[in-house]
Amino acid sequence: MATATETTSSHSHTTSVTQIVRPARSFRGSLMLPGDKSISHRYAMLAGYAEGTTKLENFSSGQDPHSSLGCMKAMGAKVEFDGKDIHVTGVGGKLQQPAGDLDCGNSGSTMRMLAGLVAGQQGEFRFIGDESLTVRPMERIRKPLELMGAKIDLTEGHAPMTIHGASSYGGLKAIDFESPIASAQVKTAVLFAGLEAAGTTSIAESVRTRDHSEHALRAFGVKLERKDNRLHIEGGQKLKAIHSVTIPGDMSSAAFFLCAALLFEDSNLVLDSLGVNPTRAAMLDVVTAMGGVVKVLDVQEQHGEMVGTIQVNRGHEGLKGVDISGELAAQLIDELPVIAAIAPFSRDGVKIRDARELRVKESDRIALVVKNLRAMGAEVTEHEDGMDIPGGQTLRGGVVDSGLDHRITMAFSIAALRAQGETEIHGAEAASVSFPEFYTWLDELAVR
Ligand code: S3P
């Protein structure tokens, strides 16, 4: 069983949870994961912006999408929780200037995507975040939004960020934009701003990033065209509430348990109602490449999103290595920490390249993965844009520093299942950012 202890620092008055994770003998069971974090953000924002009331079922339980709901509430949307589902009544396209700062917590998605939604509104919107979010790059959204005519003040390229809504000074104009960064958040900021711009905004992406915004916009009645790698959205469209929408289970949360299933010969994992959108499902290909046997059953479409049940076992050949680079690295960006954390147990090792973006996530995820692998006794070579982790290694239980990054916390809790001895995960409370139920499920599924 995993056990947690809390310590309070008298200097900073912050509470840190240390989670002890013991090795397991296998990993077995079935579950339905809470709603996808990325999709939940988009539905929180668009339901809050639309006209009418939308019921959101299986909304993410993570803190991040709740930051998005909180910001929408602060801008006039009504958000009600009935004990199971969330009912959002939107502002009909006119967001109110909030009385105070818009607190995005740890959530880069909230800050970047909402920047696009408020850019064409009336009033002033000041965005703040926690220590980690305050140093994350925001220039990437300021550039396209300023080309559209928005006025945005950053603090040395970061939050606090103030957006002066363009409706007070002539409104936004459409642009043709080529995104230099493979980022669904930047794409979304431009598409959301395009809703309020005069003319047809277009955005081209060099790598096909997650397309949840496109599906969600269409679900709210927006016309959006994709030709090759370019999206076109006409300004002035009104969004109409959806009676009810069920958010599919989160593939990026599933990734931790999929990797756990790869660690044991007789594992068996069944995940119901999981989002298997092709722009998010590269993880299933990696699981297969690493020796897993994946069955995808009952696939259905819900508001453009593909949802299915998946079953995973480890194949007879054991855990194999994998090389991840190029487009695949961009598509797996959230899953790379856990792939790296199980890499030492693989036969041939794991090489990761073209993943420089990992350095500007909730933490520098390359540096932290390397540090924690070494703390558990592994050999690893760090590169500016990735790492090389040789296979055939054993890990010993060690002290892991989460850096208060949810994905680092969970990734090393999975590695700990095959380590020799107990592992102490410091700052384990970070898991709540995307997956508060993580440790409960880990205990349930790990066979000890
Ligand atoms: C997200 C996009 C990715 C991802 C993040 C969620 C999204 O970020 O890492 O966790 O919901 O659009 P980037 O767009 O910055 O790559």
UniProtKB/TrEMBL annotation:
It is found in: Cytoplasm. 3-phosphoshikimate binds at K37, S38, R42, S183, Q185, D334, K361. Residues 23-439 form the Enolpyruvate transferase domain. GO terms for biological process: amino acid biosynthetic process; aromatic amino acid family biosynthetic process; chorismate biosynthetic process. InterPro entries: Enolpyruvate_Tfrase_dom, Enolpyruvate_Tfrase_sf, EPSP_synthase, EPSP_synthase_CS, RNA3'P_cycl/enolpyr_Trfase_a/b. SUPFAM superfamilies: EPT/RTPC-like. Keywords: Amino-acid biosynthesis, Aromatic amino acid biosynthesis, Cytoplasm, Transferase. Pathway: Metabolic intermediate biosynthesis; chorismate biosynthesis; chorismate from D-erythrose 4-phosphate and phosphoenolpyruvate: step 6/7. The keyword Transferase applies. Residues 1-21 are annotated as: Disordered. GO terms for molecular function: 3-phosphoshikimate 1-carboxyvinyltransferase activity. It comes from the Bacteria. Residues 1-18 have a biased composition (Low complexity). PROSITE patterns: EPSP_SYNTHASE_2 (PS00885). It catalyses: 3-phosphoshikimate + phosphoenolpyruvate = 5-O-(1-carboxyvinyl)-3-phosphoshikimate + phosphate. Gene3D superfamilies: Enolpyruvate transferase domain. GO terms for cellular component: cytoplasm. Its EC number is 2.5.1.19. Phosphoenolpyruvate binds at K37, G108, R136, Q185, R365, R407. The keyword Coiled coil does not apply. Belongs to the EPSP synthase family. Monomer. This is 3-phosphoshikimate 1-carboxyvinyltransferase. It comes from Bryocella elongata.
